[in-house]
Design goal:
The chain has 426 residues and is mostly helical. It is built from 18 helices and six strands. The relative contact order is 0.13. The chain folds into two domains: 63 residues, Rubrerythrin, domain 2 (Single Sheet), CATH 2.20.28; 346 residues, Citrate Synthase, domain 1, CATH 1.10.580. Bound molecules: carboxymethyl coenzyme *A. Carboxymethyl coenzyme *A binds next to loops.
């Protein structure tokens, strides 16, 4: 709280003072927790663009300056030096792990990766054409049945430590098995001798008679993408995780809801839509400029995928890292992707166009990530599953922060009712 600082609001000729809350990075908010009880009014903020739903010490984001930090560490430094499991630990516990902590954690995650054999029966109930995100969300919910220890309320610290390990291990295997189901391949068990990234690629791509050998550049690309996706403060899916968890439903239910929210094309699903848009431009043969015009046309629902963001008014710092990594990956693999050329032309033209300049629309994390996933041999329908896999530690950290908070209460927004006033049926 900002000592003694208050904001005075006059409502119906009466003055009310509300305390000002100041965060560690000096951003300020007005604490209106007593607004309704004192004044009888509620706020209306469609899309929550001006609403702080919580205080949080996990991730700091400054959209005006293009800054993103996990627990104080700049995203660029983490993407340069850390492993994904180190970042997961950092998000969950608040500090970077020591050598012995990360060694023990990595081993436990690897050991926790075996799925119950019955989980794959669930896949058979899905139509073959089902989107992998549907199966991932349902599969995560199904995991609750195999881990009853974690369903009770008031988990101890030790329970939460075990839950963290369990979810990190199980979800990687689940994601890889969904890919194998979709492409008619039998599931492969995790290889406990491999790193998290190596093991994930092994479970995706190894065959019974041929073990997948991941190149250094593909491993590096996966590491960076997972880290860049690991958290993004109170975005749509994280807010869904918190909202669901706030009713004291269990962590698996919260994560399953987070995956469902991330699936949408305005959120994580944009990585798939971005590639589909580039393919459409390529196949159309009329050139990308037509699509810039379509994106600007208010009568046309078309939007430039991978562009724009609710909070960034500058280049998304994750897009900055990804763009450089994308070029490096294609060069190291000796691949040329014509979709990358289209993406670069789109970006260059949009950034010089008054429409995008005026609205401060820049490429976001999804603009180049799909081109990297494609180069790594990951099919387009799996892109958002990969985004979800990266986001799991962030969701878990937010869920933990929420259930441990002294101000914890069920999330329950108000509304301004606009329907019929009372009327009689007879
Ligand atoms: N193409 C064309 N116009 C756009 C775009 C776009 N991609 N994004 C925003 N605008 C326009 C929008 O029409 C509005 O114009 P006007 O002021 O004339 O009405 C203005 O820019 C402000 O946009 P907004 O709709 O208020 O922005 P929002 O905060 O509600 O939506 C967004 C943010 C990300 C949903 C939106 O920018 C969008 O639809 N982008 C494309 C989808 C996408 O790439 N999503 C991934 C987001 S990053 C991954 C993640 O973390 O979710």
């Amino acid at each position: 709280m900002c000592k003694n600082k208050k904001v005075r609001v006059t409502i119906d000729s009466r003055d009310f003072d509300f305390p000002v809350i100041e965060g560690s990075e000096k951003e300020k908010g007005i604490d209106i927790s007593s607004l309704r009880s004192e004044t009888g009014y509620v706020t209306l903020d469609v899309g929550y663009a001006n609403t702080g739903s919580t205080q949080s010490s996990i991730t700091f984001l400054d959209g005006e300056k293009g800054v993103l930090r996990y627990r104080g560490y700049p995203i660029e430094q983490l993407a340069e030096k850390a492993t994904f499991l180190e970042v997961a630990w950092l998000l969950f516990y608040g500090e970077m792990p020591t050598d012995s902590e990360i060694e023990s954690f990595s081993q436990k995650v690897a050991l926790g990766g075996d799925l119950h054999k019955d989980i794959s029966n669930l896949f058979g109930g899905f139509a073959q054409d089902s989107h992998p995100m549907a199966i991932f969300s349902a599969g995560t919910m199904a995991l609750s049945g195999y881990h009853p220890d974690f369903l009770k309320n008031g988990l101890s610290k030790e329970d939460k430590d075990r839950l963290f390990v369990c979810v990190m291990g199980q979800m990687a295997t689940l994601a890889a098995n969904i890919f194998r189901f979709k492409y008619g391949k039998a599931p492969i068990n995790p290889d406990k001798s491999k790193s998290y990234e190596q093991n994930f690629l092994h479970m995706m791509f190894s065959e019974d008679d041929k073990e997948y050998r991941s190149s250094k550049s593909v491993l590096e690309a996966l590491r960076v993408l997972l880290i860049l996706h690991a958290d993004h403060e109170q975005n749509c899916s994280t807010s869904a995780v918190r909202l669901i968890g706030s009713s004291l439903s269990n962590c698996f239910a919260s994560l399953s809801g987070g995956i469902a929210a991330l699936w949408g094309v305005l959120h994580g699903g944009a990585n798939q839509k971005m590639i589909e848009m580039l393919e459409m431009i390529q196949n159309d043969g009329c050139g990308y400029k037509k699509y810039i015009e379509k994106a600007k046309d208010k009568k046309d629902p078309f939007r430039l995928m991978g562009f724009g963001h609710r909070v960034y008014r500058k280049l998304d710092p994750r897009a900055n890292v990804i763009r450089a990594k994308c070029d490096a990956l294609l060069e190291q693999l000796g691949k040329k992707d014509p979709l990358l050329d289209i993406a670069k032309e789109l970006e260059r033209t949009a950034l010089e166009d008054e429409y995008f300049i005026e609205r401060k629309l820049y490429p976001n994390v999804d603009f180049y990530s799909g081109i990297m996933y494609r180069a790594m041999g990951i099919p387009v329908e799996m892109f958002t599953v990969l985004f979800s896999l990266g986001r799991i530690p962030g969701w878990l950290a937010h869920w933990k922060e929420m259930v441990e908070s002294s101000s914890f209460r069920i999330s329950r927004p108000r509304q301004i009712y606009t329907g019929h006033t009372e009327r009689n049926l007879f």
